[in-house]
Amino acid sequence: MNVQQAPLRNFAPDNGPVSFSHDRSTFPQRTAVVAEAAASEAVAVDREARFPWKAIDAARRERLLGAQIPIEFGGDGASISDVTDMCYALGRGCASAGMIFAMHQTKIACLVRHGAGSGWHERLMRRVAAEQLLLASSTTEGQNGGNIRFSSAAVERAGAEISLVRDATVISYGAEADGIVTIARRADDAAGSDQVLLAITREDYTLEPTLAWETLGMRGTCSAGFKLNFKGSTDQIFPVPYERIHAQTMTPVAHLCWSSVWAGIAAAAVDRAQLFIRKAARSSGGNMPPGAAHFTAAKMTLTKLRAVIAANLRSYATCERDERALSSVDFQSSINLLKVEASELAVAAVMHAMRACGLSGYRNDSDVSIGRHLRDVLSAPIMINNDRILSSMGTATLMSAVPASLRE
Questions:
Q1: Where in the chain is the domain with CATH 2.40.110.10?
Q2: What is the rounded CA–CA span in Å between residue 252 and residue 299?
Q3: Which of 147, 157, 145, 229 is nearest to 190 (CA)?
Q4: Are 162 and 233 in contact (CB under 8 A)?
Q5: Cβ-Cβ contacts under 8 Å for 304 (sequence gap 6 or more)
Q6: Residue 6 has pLDDT above 60, yes or no
Q7: What is the pLDDT of residues 395-404, one digit of tens each?
Q8: In three state form, how does the secondary structure of the chain look?
Q9: β-pairing verdict for 179-185 and 135-138
Q10: Does position 4 have pLDDT exceeding 80, yes or no?
Q11: According to the model, what pLDDT value does residue 8 have?
């Protein structure tokens, strides 16, 4: 039985078309509108494990889904720094909405960088900008155990037509998306690591549900499993081998965006801890409550987390157009360690925030409840498991020189 995909939502408000500007100074205001919508339904999204429609509809109205699309194709030409700021703000309002936005923007980054010069992909860019399409990701299969650099399913070719049948153990918000960006073996006789990236739109594929999504946190990402059946044209295959896309765009943008969402979750928890400590201090004549030390630790940990992300943003911006630098051992090690360090720091910050609030933070019915934030952020270390990343980096880190000075 094929899943009924959600209809494309009209992103224009009831009173007519949206007016928008390519002025990047409008991003904070537009993002704030979306973050407010995300926060307003965060509790319900978590409780009901449902897609955050209000947040994504607001992102459509504010034209943020196509923000990265170049201006010449109808977008705003947003930078990676612009996008991570958006991810941070949305993660602060609703973890699921923030993560959906982060995953979508990672696919858009791949489309913008590696679809340039391809007529089919450039037309898709125009569609994303005009229709504010939401793109999902399908990178995990039943056979690969989360190893994105190995594919079991292969592209089948018949002249200019291609097809793909993929057992996807996870397609986050797959039923709600307007398209999917997926990886596959180049051909039936290709090695598992000889991969291509495809962009497919909902008229080209069907989804058959296979696994439900009943989880501790990140419940609104609706990351169910599906059997994906696709038929389309060879034009939908990106003109660049996936190996290059993975190193130059997929990994760095994903880790920067995910980390920014986790930092947003941590910031929301620290906000609540600060509210609790201030109230407690006022009610006791200015004396700090026992949890004050944990609040300080939470704020310090959040500061470190933000600094780690900022440093990696600067590093990526410096070498963003230098393919050799992006593929270097040093950069790849650093960007993978960002994911590991950011996820661990985010968990630590939220835990400190909960301990600062004590029982009030542990409760689900208080104004400083941190249970949802903790459940959501606990997904961070296991989303592409940190142990897998660290074990795969053993050889690379041995090859990388230890810095001889503080400024290297």
A1: 138-236
A2: 26
A3: 157
A4: yes
A5: 345
A6: no
A7: 777 777 788 8
A8: CCCCCCCCCCCCCCCCCCCCCCCHHHHHHHHHHHHHHHHHHHHHHHHHCCCCHHHHHHHHHCCCCCCCCCHHHCCCCCCHHHHHHHHHHHHHHCHHHHHHHHHHHHHHHHHHHHCCCCHHHHHHHHHHHHHCCCEEEECEECCCCCCCCCCCCECEEECCEEEEEEEEEECCCCCCCCEEEEEEECCCCCCCCCEEEEEEEHHHEEEEEEECCCCCCCHHHCCCEEEEEEEEEHHHECCCCHHHHHHHHHHHHHHHHHHHHHHHHHHHHHHHHHHHHHHHHHHCCCCCCCCHHHHHHHHHHHHHHHHHHHHHHHHHHHHCCCHHHHCCHHHHHHHHHHHHHHHHHHHHHHHHHHHHHCHHHHCCCCCCCCHHHHHHHCCHHHCCCHHHHHHHCHHHHHHCCCCCCCCC
A9: parallel
A10: no
A11: 45
Beta bridge partners of 88: none
The confidence score (pLDDT) of residue 367 equals 96
Distance CA 235, CA 358 (A): 56
Quick one: pLDDT at residue 21?
Answer: 52
**pTM of the complete model:** 0.93
Gap between the Cα atoms of 211 and 224, Å rounded: 6
**What is the location of CATH 1.10.540.10 in the chain?**
24-134
Tokens representing residue 59 in the block: 């992102």
pLDDT tens-digit map of 270-279: 999 999 999 9
Supply the CATH classification number for the domain 138-236. Answer: 2.40.110.10
Q: What is the pLDDT of residue 19?
A: 43
pLDDT in tens, 137-181: 999 887 555 688 899 999 999 999 999 999 999 999 999 999 999
- CATH code of the domain made up of 242-399: 1.20.140.10
**Class of 24-134 in CATH:** mainly alpha
Is residue 250 classed exposed, middle or buried when 0-12, 13-18 and 19+ CB atoms within 10 A define those classes?
A: buried
CATH 1.20.140.10 intervals, the chain: 242-399
Model confidence pLDDT, tens digit, residues 126-149: 999 999 999 999 998 875 556 888
pLDDT digit string, tens, across residues 314-352: 999 999 999 999 999 899 999 999 999 999 999 999 999
